[in-house]
Amino acid sequence: MLLCGTNWLRAADDVKQLHAQLSVAEDADDKPSIIELSRRLVAISPNDSTAWESLARTQLEIEDFDRLSETLDGWEKAVKKPAAAIEDFRGDLSAHQKDYKGAEQHYLAFIARKPPASDVADMYDKLSELCVEQGRWNENATYRNKAIAAKDSSARRVDYACALLRLHKWDAAYAEMAKANKLEPDGAEVKEWMPQFERLQDYLAQIKAIEARIATAPNEPALLLERARFFTLAQRPLLALDDCEKAAKLGPTSLRAHIQMAEVLFDLNRDDEAVKLQVSKNLSREQSGHVSDQSLGELDREDSLIAKNPNDAEALAARSKTLRQLNQFTLALNDARAAVELDDKSAAAHFEMAHDLDGLGQTAEAIGHAIKATDLGPTNAVMWYYRGVLEAQRANFPAAIESQTRSLAIHESSAALKAREEAERRIGKVSEADADLRRFKELEPSH
Fold first, then answer.
1. 267 FRET partner, CA 20 to 30 A, in 59, 137, 383, 389?
2. CB-based contacts of 319: which residues, under 8 Å, 6+ apart?
3. Which of left, alpha, beta for 153 (phi over 0: left; psi -120 to 50: alpha)?
4. Integer distance in angstroms from the first to the last C-alpha of the chain?
């Protein structure tokens, strides 16, 4: 119904007052008041796009997505020529709902309305983020470049450089970082990312050399894992993860791929995904924070042997040992058990079974395999020593003393002397324990 005369003037005055109150609420970031005042405004003046936009923006900020959808529908019905901002809001709503295709369509529709250049650049930023969510790295770089074309900034140059890194376009990425640094050397993004680019630069020569080999053998898991290692050392976990995932698909039996992938996932705080690989958070790392090159090299050799001959019990036992030394007892036990099934006469396989079961808290079962290991390898001092350790854990101190005595007869070691001394004291053999302690101190004077 049309208003006229006094009524029209009263309504116009009400709208003016509500806008003034809305401005105050927005300055105070009083979201409940913003929503209430905006609703009153659109009820009085349905064509007030400013009020509609304020209402929609606030609902988006408080993540009231159901009411946001209702607001956008009402806005479109009330205004003959809806503002371009509606497409932006609909895009954000679709992105929240993981409808990335719909979000992209709305953002592109917003750009098609030919808004100011700064708004176009912001929209290309959003489109880039959509591509990141979907792993569309080429499109991500394309949209980053378009954002720069719309409105250049050091932050956008840094984003574009990072997008190029993901595509392994090293020279182009470093060129963009140089431009960003020239535009704003003290910019927050430049300060954050320049050291990371410099760290990667330290490994870039090796990475490029590996890539030359990958170009001739793109489906070779070992090469991908080698490059992933350098990405990990350079603290570029996402690049490393790309290679690890591809290597794992190409070589599903590769436990080096499992270990490297889990290391990266731990670095990304994605522990749940690492656990699915049966890799424990207790993964052994060096002081540098990385799994040792030696362990990865051993896994690589053992993976290769097992890939050639899955029934190689010796290689399975060796890989079990490497995994155990990395504190990965579940994976290690799988290999040790497979080795025992293939060769029940393998002392090494039973020895690894004992270690792995003990590592998983199954000491009672572990002792049986430790005994089997010493029966099959009676001249191995380390196997006797470990059998004695397990026997002491089960409070069978006479048996532990006997096992350590057998170990010392084969090869004297401070570890076996100390273990025997402790077992002797537990059953009152004080003089024997004192003698072992004196000899231990002669071998280990620092103790």
1. 137
2. 255, 298, 299, 302, 303, 306, 332, 335
3. beta
4. 97
Q: What pLDDT score was predicted for residue 111?
A: 96
How many alpha carbons fall within 13 Å on the CB side of residue 189?
19
Angle between helices 397-410 and 414-426 (to 10 degrees): 160
Side-chain half-sphere CA neighbours of 360 within 13 A = 18
Dig out the tokens for 355 from the structure: 């270690």
The whole-number pLDDT of residue 30 equals: 83
pLDDT for position 348: 97
Question: For the chain, what is the radius of gyration of the CA atoms?
Answer: 34
> Which residues are CB-neighbours of 213 under 8 A, at least 6 positions away?
220, 223
Helix (H) or strand (E) holding 149: helix 137-150
CB distance 242 to 232 below 8 Å:
no
CA distances to 19, 23, 26, 320, 348 from 41, in Å: 8, 12, 14, 71, 81
C-alpha span between 93 and 150 (Å, rounded):
24
Which amino acid would we find at residue 361?
A: G
Q: Which stretches of the chain score pLDDT less than 70? A: 1-14, 447
The whole-number pLDDT of residue 447 equals: 63
Compute the distance between CA of residue 321 and CA of residue 109 in angstroms, rounded to an integer: 59
Amino acid at 258: H
Instruction: Give the Cα separation of 71 and 347 in Å (integer).
Output: 73
- What does the angle CA 396 – CA 398 – CA 401 come to, to the nearest 5 degrees? 110
Q: Which amino acid is at 369?
A: H
The reported pLDDT for the residue numbered 290 is 95
Q: Are 420 and 389 in contact, with CB atoms under 8 Å apart?
A: no
CA 44 distance to own-chain centroid:
52
Phi/psi at 324 (5° precision):
-60, -40
Helix axes 255-267, 237-250, angle to 10 degrees: 160
Q: Are 111 and 103 in contact (CB under 8 A)?
A: no
Segment 226-282, tens digit of pLDDT:
999 999 999 999 999 999 999 999 999 999 999 999 999 999 999 999 999 999 999
CA distance 214 to 212: 6
Non-local CB neighbours of 332 within 8 Å, separated by 6+ positions: 319, 320, 321, 323, 324, 352, 355, 356, 359
Beta strands in 150-291 (DSSP E): none
* CB count in 10 Å sphere of residue 212: 8
Q: What is the pTM of this model?
A: 0.83
Token pair 């009083």 in the structure block, residue: 30
CB-neighbour burial class of residue 25 (10 A; exposed 0-12, middle 13-18, buried 19+):
buried
293-308 and 221-233 helices, crossing angle to 10°: 170
